[in-house]
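User: I've been going back and forth on whether these two constructs are worth ordering. Before I decide, could you fold them both?

Assistant: Sure. I'll take them in the order you sent them. The first construct and its structure tokens:
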Amino acid sequence: MAPRPPLRKTIRVLLADDHTLVRRGVRLILENEPDLTVVAEAGDGAEAVELARARDVDLAVLDIAMPRMTGLQAARELSRRLPELRILILTMYDNEQYFFEALKAGAGGYVLKSVADRDLVEACRAVVLDEPFIYPGAERALVRSYLDRLHRGDGLPERAITEREEEILKLVAEGHTSKEIGEMLFISAKTVERHRANLLQKLGVRDRLELTRYAIRAGLIDP
């Protein structure tokens, strides 16, 4: 009798999305595969970071727009704290800027929710093997855009605001006070106010309402 082939290592997945129904659907897709198992679920980016540090996880699948901490912010934090952890962004945003930001944040793949049933399993396996994954159909546009930038002498798109300003923008848009934001980020309320003033100036907006509108357009919070 021929020896049995070695069993493939099961990929332990952390799934983070603030919509329970989305998590349930994604979990069904993943757990239909013998080599994928969801071992933890998070409803926001901050919880995802906490769970990833506490659990034995191989892959974090993160939505972009989540409360408290976005998927991109969580990816940056996880890349710093757990460099061996692989990260995949699962999002509704078919957006070039988000794709580049995801790569800069440490993600190895970018999958659209609209085609998750087709691409997600392949993306999970690829990212764990350190093979970057981007959803089919986007490669040409991204490569063409990148080459156009090089021909114009431009670099990759620059961030309009810093990572800290992005964190504060998101929390302001969610309705938190400067005192609450300071406590969450371990900085003073005065420092929060200074960042907030910088945001108003940089983005050319006047008040929290306009900051919130910007945060929605940027995908930091859901409308």
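The second construct, handled the same way:
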Amino acid sequence: MTRPPAATAPGTPPAGLRDFYEDPSVPVASGTARSRRQAQLLARALGPVRPGTPAATILDIGCGDGTAAATAAEVLAGHRLIGVDWSQDALRRARTRIPCAVRGELTDGGLPFAADSADAVLFSEIVEHLVDPDAALDELRRVLRPGGHLMLSTPNLAAWYNRGLLLAGVQPVFSEVSLRQVHGRPGTQVVGHLRLYTARALRGFLTASGFEVVRIAGAPYHDVPRPLRPLDRAACHVPSLASILLAHARRRRE
């Protein structure tokens, strides 16, 4: 999970959320394996960099400390990768890992880029933190060129183990009822999730936001107990059961 660039529209996160996300103990990255897989999906979509062809402009929205962006840059060599975050503290750390990181917010015109200027957007585990995800997708759609790629990842509410937990009357993994501590579910880490999606809900949300869904794939979750990890990897073959949803969508052409 990368640190959210903005949680509300208009403006930046409310004071409580802003303080929470600025806390250095809150995780700001989801691990290199998932970042690399997402970048590989984008690399295949963009195709090889050819001599005489301009490099694609790729925005990593919510780049946090730049760890995920640095991993993606290795896979997307030859393209122009720009990190974006609202947190000045996160940006200071990101600039030690990637060449370019700028401040921006997911509000109306809050990203410092012209309309139709980006070829692709990486939006890694941000949407589940947003108060107003509709405004965020509107802003991403604005900066993407027609046909531009959106690579979005988010935890899956209907992950295979969450289905069993709900049947047992247990709060699902990834869901949170407090910013202070975990209540009623496995785990101890509070990360500020406000919204959760199933594969069906994510597909409908992206379509309604002006995107054409190319593919939804599954990815494993790094915090699954070790004995269950083979099962978690197997669940990725059925994205609706996977721990993490990886969506590839394209901005619809008018």
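Notes on the second construct follow. The chain has one domain: 24-156+196-251. The longest strand covers residues 144-155.
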